[in-house]
Amino acid sequence: AGQSFALGVVESLAEGTAKQKLTAEAGDGVGGIATSGWTGHSFSLGIADAVTVTAASAAAADAAATLIANAVDVEDEAIARRPARGIDPDSDLGTRVVTLAVPQLPRRSVAEALDRGCERAAAMLSRGSISGALLCLQNERRQLGTLDIEELPGERAGDQQEKQG
Fold first, then answer.
1. Alpha-carbon dihedral sign for residues 20, 26, 28, 32
2. How far, in Å, CA of 160 to CA of 103, rounded?
3. 76: exposed, middle or buried (Cβ count in 10 Å: 0-12, 13-18, 19+)
4. 18 to each of 15, 126, 156, 162, how far by Cα in Å?
5. Could you tell me if 10 and 50 are in contact, meaning their C-beta atoms sit under 8 angstroms apart?
6. Single pTM value for the model
């Protein structure tokens, strides 16, 4: 009681730089936090750069992050995909098509993909399976639920300066 913890949150697993800080207080019901995305350590069906989820347990957060990240998706011929078994003959995903590369997409495609992920996250929130989710794709992000997330000092301002300079 009376304690809290904070951790860095990435918008892209490939980049791996924390740009936000997530804080959880005792009594928030957060027992697990997990992040998933197409550049993570395992195959992904979707195109999310990163989806971070809070839930009552680590197992619930991990499963939800994977399912939501898989739902962040859109049809686009430029997205490189291949059957999982063609990459790893021992994959339990078999002939399911997984994401290999995601080029810069039109803003409407990014919005559509994030909308699909948000639908999945909203359903999980309404069932009480998760307490919050942050969905990120190509510098766009959506936040649902009760996440206490704040920008790390200088991150957004630094990003804007780099784009302008």
1. positive
2. 22
3. middle
4. 9, 28, 11, 17
5. yes
6. 0.88
- Given a contact cutoff of 8 angstroms between Cβ atoms, the answer to whether 117 and 142 are in contact is yes
Exposure pattern of 125-146 as b/e (b: 16+ CB <10 Å)? Answer: beeebbbbbbbbbbeebbbbbe
Give residue for tokens 């021992």: 90
SS3 of residue 150 by DSSP: strand
Q: What would the pLDDT profile of 50-96 be if each residue is shown by its tens digit?
A: 999 999 999 999 999 999 999 999 999 999 999 999 999 999 999 99
Res. 29: pLDDT tops 80:
yes
- Cα 102 to Cα 136: distance, rounded to the nearest angstrom: 13
Distance CA 33, CA 26 (A): 14
- What are the tens digits of pLDDT across the range 99-126? 999 999 999 999 999 999 999 999 999 9
Amino acid making up residue 49: D
